[in-house]
Amino acid sequence: MNDTQLMLDLCVAMLRMVVLVSLPTVLVAALVGLVVGLLQAVTQLQEQSLAFAVKFLAVAGVLAISIPWMAKALESFMTEVFRAAVSVR
Predict the structure, then answer these.
(1) CA 20 to 30 Å from 86, out of 4, 10, 40, 72?
(2) First and final CA of the chain: distance in angstroms?
(3) From CA 64, how far away is CA 81, in angstroms rounded?
(4) What is the pLDDT of residues 42-79, one digit of tens each?
(5) Structure letter (DSSP) for residue 89
């Protein structure tokens, strides 16, 4: 495999890792925002700080739970990147 192909493969793997690591947080924020928005529409309560506070707590909870997994995934990816960097001439 030539160096250009290796760099392209690493860039694709990096983009996949970014999506994989950010997906739980983004999904929870979107789902909580949707649910809070629906509840606000049904109850006719238009308080912006309520939506922010609930979304903030949900995202903080997801991060607290998933940070060990994220760190392990990033560590294994960086190990792969460094191994590939050593193999380049």
Answers:
(1) 72
(2) 12
(3) 26
(4) 988 888 888 899 999 999 999 999 999 999 999 999 99
(5) -
Number of domains in the chain: 1
2-7 contact pairs (CB < 8 A, 24+): 3/88, 3/89, 6/84, 6/87, 6/88
Quickly tell me which residue has 């960097």 as its tokens: 85
Q: What is d(CA 61, CA 45) in angstroms, rounded to the nearest whole number?
A: 25
- Write down how long the chain is: 89
Confidence of residue 18 (pLDDT cuts 50, 70, 90): very high
DSSP string, 3-71: HHHHHHHHHHHHHHHHHHHHHHHHHHHHHHHHHHHHHHHHHT---HHHHHHHHHHHHHHHHHHHHHHHH
